[in-house]
Design brief:
Number of strands: 9
Shape: elongated
CATH architecture of the largest domain: 3-Layer(aba) Sandwich
Helix content: 25-40%
Number of domains: 2
Length: 282
């Protein structure tokens, strides 16, 4: 079925789809690469897939060819609706396209489990969408996995380990509730137009429960305070959280002289529990 559709370069010419910086667009036209991204999401048969920013539909075609039960594609650029409609006609009943801003549209009423998110995310909204998907009011979330394209620097921050410069709030937020790994890296020339940086695809598989117990809001507050002043020792960086923060750090098994990037996820969660207990007791 995928071979019956015209090449993406022809689609772009026919519909005058020059990529626009205002939409954060960098089109991936190599259907071998889009198929690899679709396969990186795992077995799509029997799953609904949410795609953000499909553009001319290269990845959309890959998702459908790999057997996705249904694809819900949310596209902000009205110019892309006609080429996406051509794909929908080639795969009857399996592609729904919604025109709108992914930051404003709630896709959940249009999807049924199991749900996977697969997207070549526009760079200007990628991190914000990831944070939203990782911080819903209730866990587990509506999705089972996220397979997402980011700037390589952002991807490395998501999978970073303690002690590295990339390690920070994003790594902790994702790794607390999910397993994350980089599954594909792409050079700038893979895209049209080529961005100034390399890109990487990250596969995030949710856990049913967070790795360690902690109140989500407290953990976020503690981690934010620590990494907002990451060069300072924690006894100084976290001073505003509690008048006796040094004692609480010791209770959590963290050296007060440690810096944020030296502290692992389990210890951050322990500190969040100690702080929450102190707040309730105080």
């Amino acid at each position: 079925m995928i071979d019956l559709l015209p090449p993406l370069r022809e689609v772009i010419r026919a519909h005058d789809l020059r990529a626009r910086k205002s939409f954060g667009q960098n089109f991936l036209l190599d259907l071998n690469l889009t198929a690899r991204i679709a396969r990186a999401a795992g077995d799509l048969r029997g799953a609904d897939v949410l795609e953000i920013g499909p553009g001319p539909g290269g990845l959309t075609r890959g998702l459908l060819a790999e057997g996705a039960r249904r694809v819900l594609a949310i596209e902000k650029d009205a110019r892309c609706l006609a080429p996406l409609a051509e794909i929908a006609a080639a795969y009857p009943g399996r592609l729904q396209v919604m025109e709108g801003d992914a930051l404003e549209v709630d896709p959940r009423p249009h999807l049924r489990p199991p749900i996977k998110v697969v997207a070549n995310l526009p760079y200007n909204v990628g991190t914000e969408l990831l944070i939203r998907w990782m911080t819903p009011p209730d866990w587990p979330p509506f999705w089972e996995s996220l397979t997402l394209m980011f700037q390589r620097e952002v991807a490395e921050r998501i999978v970073a380990r303690p002690g590295s410069k990339a390690y920070g709030r994003l790594a902790l937020m994702v790794q607390w509730r999910a397993e994350a790994r980089i599954v594909l890296t792409l050079p700038p020339e893979a895209f049209t137009p080529p961005p100034k940086v390399s890109s990487a695809v990250v596969h995030v598989r949710r856990l049913d429960q967070p790795r360690y117990p902690a109140d989500a809001a407290t953990l976020e507050r503690v981690v934010a305070a620590g990494f907002n002043q990451r060069r300072k020792m924690l006894r100084a960086a976290l001073r505003g959280l509690h008048p006796d923060i040094e004692s609480l750090l010791l209770q959590a098994g963290i050296a007060p002289t440690a810096r944020a990037e030296e502290v692992g996820l389990e210890s951050w969660c322990g500190l969040a529990r100690v702080l929450e207990h102190a707040r309730r007791a105080g």
